Amino acid sequence: MAAAADEQLLLHLKLAFLALEPPACVLTLARKAGGGSVTPHVQNFILENCIGTNVGKSPNYAYVETILKKVIVEAELSSDIVIDEIYEELGQCMLSKTNNSSLDMASKIYKDISFLSPTYDNVSSNPVSLVAQLSCSTNMLEGDTGCCLWPSSLFLSEFILSFPELFSKKSCFELGSGVGLVGVCLNYIGASKVILTDGDVSTLANMKANMEMNSLYIKDSQLVIESNNKVECKYLSWEEASDKDLWGCQRDIVLGADIIYNPSCVPHLVRVLSMLLREDNEQRTSVKAATSKETSDEVSEKGATGGRIAYMATVIRNVDTFSCFAKAAADAKLSIVNITSTVAPSSFLPYMLSYDRSSVQLLEITLLS
Ligand SMILES: C[S@@+](CC[C@H](N)C(=O)[O-])C[C@H]1O[C@@H](n2cnc3c(N)ncnc32)[C@H](O)[C@@H]1O
């Protein structure tokens, strides 16, 4: 039993490292795995299973260097032995960093976001249910904030993985998709179509590269049959979007993560949402048929009784901006129900200490008839 718990702690440490969690969070997990200090056993684990696993990927020398330095300080402080290999790795890392200074200057980093099965019982052979590989930016503002991974999309991903029956065999359309994590999850649970959109050109390019990295997008879809693309990535600016842009875009479910933050975009966002939620005769589909009884009890009744529906995960940073959204939505006859406490998605990211799930709200939005 104790061995299984130790194994789990080490697994969390490894996944946090691969997700490029802040070094302080990785060290917290390393200390936990060592029973209070970063023991030689844990140091070895970091070398072999964290840094070692990353070989072959575009290495982030600055990140590895910071982790190794922190390990040394931490071990010395607690009078633990620092194994020689840690110093050797640090030396190698500093050398590589100097030799590849242009690579390290780049703001792109690669994160492996691993979703752990919540029913993981320490016996199952593969506790990780899904890994999304994502190129992100170290600069929060790059790509109009879309090249960074935000907590709302982690929450929305956990919601999708917790209630796959709501999304499987459905056409899903996301607004402001950023790095595209939600698309990877929707594809994983078997959505029939996934359309990711963004109004920022550099974000869209990064999103397409991410879908390619996860084998979900084929470059140059004009040459290859469109249906080969499991996930479609589309330019869609809320200011410019017209009904015509949305013609032919199948969508049973509309999604969005952290897209309610700019008051000047709110009226455009609400207009696009209304267009997307409006039923058009040729694509009328019912969510009702495929929604299981169990889920319909948990998610609010409206979500399970048919018609188009939107799920938006959001962090309310500015109450005025959110009120502005709520008012514009009410004027457009959109109903907003906060379902955060009723659905409570399972925790698939227990190792991600930097992810504050409690800051995220989940909204269910429908068009009132
Ligand atoms: C805070 S980021 C969230 C990204 C991603 N959904 C996540 O949660 O990680 C906001 C996203 O909305 C997009 N966005 C902002 N304003 C937009 C607009 N007017 N039209 C289309 N996309 C927009 C940005 O480009 C960016 O990708």
Quick gist of this model?
With 369 residues, this protein is α/β, with parallel strands linked by helices. The protein has helices at 2-18, 23-33, 40-51, 61-77, 84-99, 101-105, 151-162, 164-167, 181-188, 201-213, 243-246, 266-277, 287-290, 293-298, 319-331, 340-343; strands at 108-116, 128-137, 171-175, 193-198, 231-235, 253-257, 309-315, 334-338, 360-367. The strands form two sheets. The chain has a seven-stranded mixed β-sheet with strand order 5-4-3-6-7-9-8, sandwiched between helices. A two-stranded antiparallel ribbon has the order 1-2.
Low-confidence stretches: 281-296, 300-305
Q: State the helix count.
A: 16
Rg over CA atoms? 22 Å
Name the beta content range: 15-25%
Euclidean distance between termini CA atoms: 55 Å
Whole-number count of domains = 2
CATH first level of the largest domain: Alpha Beta
Architecture (CATH level 2) name of the largest domain: 3-Layer(aba) Sandwich
The CATH superfamily of the largest domain bears the name Vaccinia Virus protein VP39
Helix-strand makeup class = alpha/beta
CATH fold name of the largest domain, please?
Rossmann fold
Q: How are the elements arranged and paired?
A:
Blueprint: H1 2-18, H2 23-33, H3 40-51, H4 61-77, H5 84-99, H6 101-105, E1 108-116, E2 128-137, H7 151-162, H8 164-167, E3 171-175, H9 181-188, E4 193-198, H10 201-213, E5 231-235, H11 243-246, E6 253-257, H12 266-277, H13 287-290, H14 293-298, E7 309-315, H15 319-331, E8 334-338, H16 340-343, E9 360-367
Parallel strand pairs: 3-4, 3-6, 4-5, 6-7
Antiparallel strand pairs: 1-2, 7-9, 8-9
Helix pairs in contact: 1-2, 1-3, 2-4, 4-5, 7-9, 12-15
Bound molecules: S-adenosylmethionine (SAM).
